[in-house]
Amino acid sequence: MTDQTKTQPALTDRQRDYLLLTIFVFAQHGDHARAKQIVDGMLALGERSEKVFISQAVLEFFCGNHAEALRCLDHLDQVAGTGKALDQDTKRMRQYLRARCYYASGQQAEAQSIAAKLTAPTREAVRQ
Predict the structure, then answer these.
(1) For the segment 1-46, what is each residue's pLDDT rounded down to a tens digit?
(2) Which InterPro entries does the record cross-reference, listed alphabetically (predicted)?
(3) Domain 3-127 of CATH type 3.20.20.70
(4) Nearest Cα to Cα of residue 19 among 27, 94, 5, 61
């Protein structure tokens, strides 16, 4: 294997975008198993983008694997971070999914704590 082969990504940007769109279409049509196969394939190819990890977490949630979805979200937080670099919508979406996972797995206190933070008025909303 040459040095050039080691550094080239397994997928081009166009291929990655196509697969992510395909995952979305399958998920929207309720074919979670096929969408999950694509995510698993992308991970096997070494894809490590935030979009792939969040797709994995969402699909685990849709399949009823709430503990696995939480594990995926924890992994995503480690890999992509949770700091100021993330936009507010991304942070809120991850937290919403986490709350749904907690609620679905019977951990109401954790779910309610996150929900309270998500529904609390923000400083900007109070100023308006």
Answers:
(1) 455 455 677 899 999 999 999 999 999 999 999 999 999 999 999 9
(2) TPR-like_helical_dom_sf (IPR011990)
(3) no
(4) 27
For residue 21, how many other CB atoms are within 10 A of its CB? 10
Alpha-carbon distance 30 to 49, whole Å? Answer: 23
Taking the model in full, what pTM does it have?
Answer: 0.81
Contact (CB, 8 A) for 58 and 73: no
What are the tokens at 48?
Answer: 């490590």
pLDDT tens sequence across 61-111: 999 999 999 999 999 888 876 666 667 888 889 999 999 999 999 999 999
Q: How many whole angstroms separate alpha carbon 54 and alpha carbon 47?
A: 12
Distance, C-alpha 12 to centroid of its chain: 21
End-to-end CA distance of the chain: 59
